[in-house]
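Format notes (please read before filing issues)

Several people have asked whether sequences and structure tokens are stored in separate files. They are not. Every record keeps both together, in the order shown below: the sequence lines, then the token lines. Line labels are part of the format and must not be stripped during preprocessing.
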Amino acid sequence: MIISWLWSIDKALTIEALLKEIPLLIIPICFLLCKDIIILNKDKILKYYSYSIVVLTVFFLTKAIYNYFLTKDFSVFFFHNLVTKELNAVHFSVFVTLALFYFLTKDLKKINDYILVVFLLIFLLLLSSKNIILSTILLSGIYFFYYSKSANKMRLRNIIILGVVLLSVLSFSLIKERLIFEFKIKEESNIGHTVINKKEIGSNIISMKEAWYNEKFNQTDYFSGSSFRVYQTRLFFEFLQEDNIFWKGFGLNSSYKKLEEKGIHYNVFQGNNQVEGYQKKNFHNQYIQVFAELGMFGFLILVIILYVNLKKAIKHKDFMHIAFAVLMISLFLTESFLWRQRGVVFFTAFYCLFNYTKKE
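Then the structure lines:
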């Protein structure tokens, strides 16, 4: 990241981004200095983290209830409206899921732990991140079938539990639609969108095919979360063809400049006084973001980091570590998580916590 400043097409943006990425350096140093304390208190750290997330979820839910009585708008219970767009519902879903698995995987669970698992699961569904919900289902299946104490003795029960969870998630969208209808939430509020709400632009919804092939767009064109990511992926491949970025990239954080130019060229929604336009958004894909800004070498470093993380998790048979590894691999497909300070702090801290162990 630091070296990329040498060839960055926007050195000011690179310097600005480096300040946000400092935790990648500082946190590992802190772990090295406190290695014995970290090893001895790993479980306690996870405990404090998980209960802190519970406190936050209670706060956000209480705030949503209060806002509902003020506005009579049921959308305050869903997605960004529940935790604010600045915090980001997808990011917070990851925080919640890791806490959920802490309570689920405790060796000696009490009734309070089961209650907290259910509570956090409901909150996760309200956050409406399909990616994280599906990852949670996958990880729950892995836990019940391979890591729980009753994995072999009660496989049938685990199948039933997983089936109930799966059906609950699949039916959630239907339940939500019904609730939206009952409480007369306007369709254009588009609960669940991670970029821009439809009501802020227009009603012309762009399909994924159109996002890939259209030569021009209109200011009323609306990209769904999936179609927007297809559009951004299209721009990445165009950059590879038009610019010499395969090995080095544009430089840390410098792709914003090129994305804005492309956004103007294709005439995507440019924003207004209240809403930032599509041309101001990042790739919403960590792998592509790294490749575009740090080139093939940066991309390979990221892949190696994730590979080592997953390999160690499987080797040590630590389910919390496995959950973290899988969540990060999945999250990076839809979010440029490490380009947000909360993201880089979360990833670096837990990466160090799970991978720093006693010498084998």
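For reference, the curators noted about this record: The radius of gyration is 22 Å. Residues 178-192 have pLDDT under 50 and may be disordered.
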